[in-house]
Write a structure and sequence with these properties.
The complex is a heterodimer of chains A (about 120) and B (about 110).
Chain A: E1 4-7, E2 10-13, E3 19-25, E4 31-38, E5 42-49, E6 56-57, E7 65-67, E8 73-78, E9 87-94, E10 106-107, E11 111-115
Parallel strand pairs in A: 2-11
Antiparallel strand pairs in A: 1-3, 3-8, 4-5, 4-9, 5-6, 7-8, 9-10, 9-11
Chain B: E1 3-5, E2 10-14, E3 19-21, E4 24-26, E5 31-38, E6 44-50, E7 56-58, E8 64-68, E9 73-78, E10 87-95, E11 103-104, E12 108-113
Parallel strand pairs in B: 2-12
Antiparallel strand pairs in B: 1-4, 3-9, 5-6, 5-10, 7-8, 8-9, 10-11, 10-12
The chains are: A mainly beta (about 120), B mainly beta (about 110).
Chain lengths: ~120, ~110
């Protein structure tokens, strides 16, 4: 039981390059999330999904796209990377709403992205 | 919308001493409150949560938190810390209805001094 797995763990991009971050969960969770973590700013929600084939914008969606073609996978794409997107990206999943009683968020170990 | 304030960005504490990490929230509706912990080079994991009932909530690793509605606070405490408690701690809040998502605070880095 791997939980939430993120690939890659590290990546360096040049400005303007594109990349996709992959998140996979094996807990049959309906909800999946992408957060970015920046010093002094905590975690901010980029996009989320409430089920296969659905996506929605979070707090800071600009410059990112997502897809949830399969229930277990949630992809985060950067079409044209910018230095402001240098951050640590975390994927998380939950059984139901993140506030509900038996539905804590399960996090991956993060992807450290540097854009030069 | 709701917000969370963690006033202390860093808290150094001697081993076996008590610690309190402060969290205040703002919301116009009833909320659920959470503390998550992030150990070095790992993702976050749930430490404890307040949904309803007793205002004193006990979590893993000997931590507890008290919900104070009048002061809009949810401070985290541990009577005696260990080296293994070195981590970053995040307070989070969510409205208790609808499709509201968690809002995280900026985090408090707890450093245990041997």
């Amino acid at each position: 039981n791997a939980g939430v797995t993120q690939t890659p763990k590290f990546r360096v991009l040049k400005t303007g390059q594109s990349m996709t971050l992959l998140c996979a969960q094996d807990m049959n969770h309906e909800y999946m999330y992408w957060y970015r973590q920046d010093p002094g700013m905590g975690l901010r929600l980029i996009h989320y999904s409430v089920g296969e084939g659905t996506t929605a914008k979070g707090e800071v969606p600009d410059g990112y796209n997502v897809s949830r073609l399969k229930k277990q996978n949630f992809l985060l794409g950067l079409e044209s990377a910018a230095p402001s997107q240098t951050s640590v990206y975390f994927c998380a999943s939950s059984y139901g709403e993140s506030w509900s009683y038996n539905s804590p968020l399960h996090f991956g170990n993060g992807t450290r992205l540097t854009v030069t | 919308a709701q917000s969370v304030t963690q006033l202390d960005s860093q808290v150094p504490v001697f081993e076996e001493a008590p610690v309190e990490l402060r969290c205040n929230y703002s919301s116009s509706v009833s909320v659920y409150l959470f503390w998550y912990v992030q150990y070095p080079n790992q993702g976050l994991q749930l430490l404890l949560k307040y949904l309803s009932g007793s205002t004193l909530v006990k979590g893993i690793n000997g931590f507890e938190a008290e919900f104070n509605k009048s002061q809009t606070s949810f401070h985290l405490r541990k009577p005696s810390v260990h080296i293994s408690d070195t981590a970053e701690y995040f307070c989070a809040v969510s409205a208790n209805f609808g499709n509201e998502k968690l809002t995280f605070g900026t985090g408090t880095r707890l450093t245990i001094i041997p």
